[in-house]
């Protein structure tokens, strides 16, 4: 886990929650425990078959992984296989969570997203620090 990501954690000793990405990408989503709790509490908690499928798919495989002294995590084999991660991984910050990718595919996806954002830049609405609109 890159040091700049770890530095943002409220309690690094609590580790992070990792699951297959709900974006549909061959990547993993990783959340701090507090953010994962917010994510869970904001999900619809009903007992319809669709809601249960969503809960199984999204939360059923989520694992709390602890960081070692050097800030490393060990990804279980099923997560590595899902995301095609071998010896190295690429961490991409997405605001409130992080995605973990196979490095070549992750950087390719990031570049693709950048090109898409530039093409659609008129529709991007980001608050600028110190700007009073």
Overview of the molecule:
The protein has a five-stranded antiparallel beta sheet. The protein is 37% helix and 15% strand. The protein starts with a helix and ends in a 14-residue tail after the last helix. The longest helix is centred in the C-terminal third of the chain and has 17 residues. The chain has five helices and five strands; from the N terminus they run αββααβαββα. It is an alpha+beta fold and 133 residues long.
Brief sketch in words of this structure:
37% of the residues lie in helices and 15% in strands.
Sum up the overall morphology in one term: globular
- Measured between the Cα atoms of the first and last residue, the distance is 37 Å
Mean residue pLDDT = 83
**Assembly of the depicted chains:** single chain
The proportion of strand residues reads 15-25%
**Physical arrangement of strands within the biggest beta sheet:** 3-1-2-5-4
State the share of residues found in helices, binned by percent. 25-40%
Number of strands: 5
Largest sheet: 5 strands, antiparallel
Q: What's the Cα radius of gyration?
A: 16 Å
Helix- and strand-based class?
alpha+beta
- Series of secondary-structure elements, N-terminal to C-terminal: HEEHHEHEEH
Parts with pLDDT < 50 across at least 5 consecutive residues: 129-133
Q: Please tally the helical runs, counting DSSP H or I stretches of 4 or more residues.
A: 5
